[in-house]
Amino acid sequence: GVQLGSTQQGGVTVGEVYPGTAAAKHGMQSGDVIVEIDGASTTNLARLQDAIGSNQPGDSVDLALLRAGERMTLHVKLGHRPDDTVLRSAEAEDVLQVLQVRPGQTIADLGCGSGWLSEAIAGRLAGAGTVYAVEIQEQHIARLYDRSISGIVPVLSLPDDVSLPENSLDLAVLHDVASHIDPEARPSFYDSVRRALKPGAHLVVFGPHGEAEEMLRILRSNGFVPLQDDTLRALSSTELDRRLGEGLRFHPR
């Protein structure tokens, strides 16, 4: 597998390539920036993980890379469980630290995609808690059911409703998916999130890069106010992007 680092240059940076893995055999190198998979842009880690997770072990994909400023394409055959062994997220530990996951919590990973973050959260809960892996794409939910990971409950949701019980969540997470919510569905979607949160519970939003001011406007207009809102309003666009990339907590109004 490979360890993935930060998002830059419109793609995802490869931090380390582990010897003997499919990635190493196909010529991937540390420092490569993955910008496309089968022609689809991979502007952030979530999109890359979802694109990999939508394929089966043994499938082949074309990865467009930037290496020392030069664009190149690698034809890669995926190994078993590509979302875990071909691509392993270096980001998960940082996300878990921001979430402050505690045993016994019930947490929703909204727009979970392949489930890489849901799996990381479930690992931190260590059997004492529940992760709702919420997704509108049936193929992702089907694969999560097939994998039957302890502590994870896959939930096939609607574009405008997270389909979770009222007052059931200690925490909800949107990781690099908030910008993909249909504008017409936003009011109902965020209302369903609000209903699912327990009193005092938070929504934590990560990214997307370059859209912090717009995302904050959308969240505020849909009833979610960031903690330390006055401080955030005084920050520059660049600093807001950095803070949103690291994860911001919101409470329902």
What does this structure look like?
The chain is α/β, with parallel strands linked by helices and 253 residues long. The protein folds into two domains: 2-88, Pdz3 Domain, CATH 2.30.42.10; 91-252, Vaccinia Virus protein VP39 (Rossmann fold). The protein is built from nine helices and 14 strands. The strands form two sheets. Strands 1, 2, 3, 4, 5, 6 and 7 form a seven-stranded mixed beta sheet that branches. A seven-stranded mixed beta sheet has the order 10-9-8-11-12-14-13, with helices on both faces.
Biggest β-sheet strands, sense, barrel: 7 strands, mixed
Number of domains: 2
Described by the principal axes of the CA atoms, the overall outline is globular
Order of SSEs:
EEHEEHEEEHEHEHEEHEHEHHE
Reported by name, the CATH topology of the largest domain is Rossmann fold
Instruction: Name the structural class.
Output: alpha/beta
**Low-pLDDT sequence parts:** 80-88
Approximate helicity band: 25-40%
Q: How many helices does DSSP assign?
A: 9
- The CATH architecture of the largest domain would be 3-Layer(aba) Sandwich
Report the β-strand fraction as a percent range: 25-35%
CATH superfamily of the largest domain: Vaccinia Virus protein VP39
Q: Taking all residues together, what is the mean pLDDT?
A: 85
Number of extended strands:
14
CATH class of the largest domain: Alpha Beta
Which radius of gyration do the C-alpha atoms yield? 18 Å
**Roughly how many Å apart are the termini?**
43 Å
